[in-house]
Specification:
The protein has 5 helices and 20 strands. The protein is mainly beta.
């Protein structure tokens, strides 16, 4: 088992609410087509972790519940802190309304919108209101691997780390992933000053490239590897670098955009190696979304 500093991490409560659903009418796509479809936010009933990241009549659709601290002040420090502190795998508790006390799980966070994506059981989703609020038991930022200092971990609950099937080999770590993305396909988000909140997008305007690289069937919640990229100090191209992330929102019609990926691990020195495993999905590990109730 990997040695970590879990015993020294701080568990702290952060609170948010349902983010309002937002649409962008008459949006021009990468091929010049005008789109009028749903976009981000709200409570999404029929798009869940485990569903395809492609094919929806939507743009950047987020599974289950999109949450935020203050949608009118997305860029303010408290709102950015809510996004930063919520880690994939954290427990979320409904504080208000007909589902008060119900438990859910953080899937990841979406940059730009500054949304935190939370999975709840369908019975809970059906009772939630856009006025409802959540408490997230933040735990994970500051997580380190004691024997692998070159591997940077972020936005990841230690409990999820333990379920990911990591293997130590050749002085590094091997990670099962559902897809391996070449560097050239990464788009929106590159150049950000840090990668510990939000996400960056895989570009999908070249469908032949997706098919050629086995990426056309990615699902929400899939773990993926991004080759020749590093996220130690912001997302960038770096030969030999690897980023491991979670697919947290759906495809986009916009140039430079596509399914969004929350970063959870990165290494600039070749000590992080992906291996293809189609079952590598946080929903399967944590029994979320379409995997709820399945063995």
């Amino acid at each position: 088992m990997l040695k970590t500093n879990e015993s020294r991490l701080v568990k702290i409560a952060v609170e948010g609410r349902v983010a309002p659903a937002i649409a962008y009418p008459n949006t021009v796509g990468h091929d010049g087509t005008v789109h009028n479809v749903p976009a981000i936010g709200g409570i999404t009933y029929n798009v869940l972790v485990g569903d395809s990241a492609f094919g929806w009549e939507a743009d950047h659709v987020e599974p289950a519940v999109s949450s935020i601290l203050n949608f009118e002040k997305r860029r303010d420090r408290p709102n950015v802190s809510y996004n930063f502190l919520a880690c994939a795998g954290n427990e979320a508790i409904v504080l208000t309304g007909n589902s008060k006390g119900a438990r859910g799980t953080v899937v990841g966070h979406h940059g730009g919108a500054e949304h935190v994506i939370i999975d709840f059981a369908p019975a809970v989703l059906n009772k939630l209101s856009v006025e409802d609020r959540f408490q997230i038991r933040s735990f994970g930022q500051g997580l380190k691997l004691a024997d692998h200092p070159d591997v940077v971990v972020s936005s990841l609950d230690p409990a999820l780390l333990k379920k990911m099937g990591l293997r130590e080999a050749n002085g590094g770590i091997e990670v099962p992933v559902a897809g391996i993305i070449p560097a050239a396909l990464m788009g929106s988000g590159i150049g950000s000053e840090h990668a510990r909140s939000g996400d960056y997008d895989m570009m999908t305007s070249d469908r032949k490239a997706l098919e050629r690289n086995g990426l056309a069937n990615l699902k929400l919640g899939d773990l993926v590897a991004i080759k020749d990229h590093d996220a130690s100090f912001g997302w960038r191209y770096l030969e030999g670098g690897v980023v491991i992330g979670i697919v947290i929102h759906g495809d986009s019609h916009l140039s430079g955009h596509g399914p969004g990926i929350t970063t959870i691990m990165t290494c600039a020195t070749g000590k992080l190696s992906p291996w293809l495993h189609p079952a590598a999905n946080v929903g399967r590990y944590l029994k979320l979304g379409r995997f709820r109730g399945k063995r």
